[in-house]
Predict the structure of WIF1 factor.
Amino acid sequence: EAECPGGCRNGGFCNERRICECPDGFYGPHCEKALCAPRCMNGGLCITPGLCICPPGFYGINCDKANCTTTCFNGGTCFYLGKCICPSGYEGDQCEISKCHQPCRNGGKCTGRNKCKCSKGYQGDLCSKPVCEPGCGLYGTCTEPNKCQCKEGWHGRHCNKRYGASSLSALRPSGSKQRQQSPSPKRAEERHVPPESNYIW
């Protein structure tokens, strides 16, 4: 039987070319390394096939989970004790510092140094400008998403319709006076009952 320099470990066999042939789950010149699938992460050490020894702060079959007591804000993810991976737009140990000096408005998210990603219906550096599509024309101002405030004399969803004479007369109160109804006798009597009266009508 051939001998391999340094020997073959973990049940490895030394072939006639003096190279170790390793059993399943081991590899290396001396079959000294175990194979873990999935591989050990975050500095974990594979000691036998499929078994990782995890460094402090990590656990899981392949050391992929962190023992986190740290709270990460603004959508950050804890990846090690006291350390957070922050989404773009935030920084700091706990992702508590916004990269936007002024906060993004109307549901916008800070995505970088003073850059906001606006929610639907808003635009501008701080997401403070509402969007009206296709717009409010020459006679309107966009006040909310897809809501136009029309100037006097104009109407319509996009402030592109002018009030005509027929429309204006419809808005004015008519000249005919409504006939006032006289109150019913019972109501008239109720009005004249003194507040301290015990009568029930």
Remarks:
- The helical segments are 165-171, 185-192.
- The longest helix spans residues 185-192.
- The chain is about 5% helix and 25% strand.
- The first strand starts at residue 13 and ends at 14.
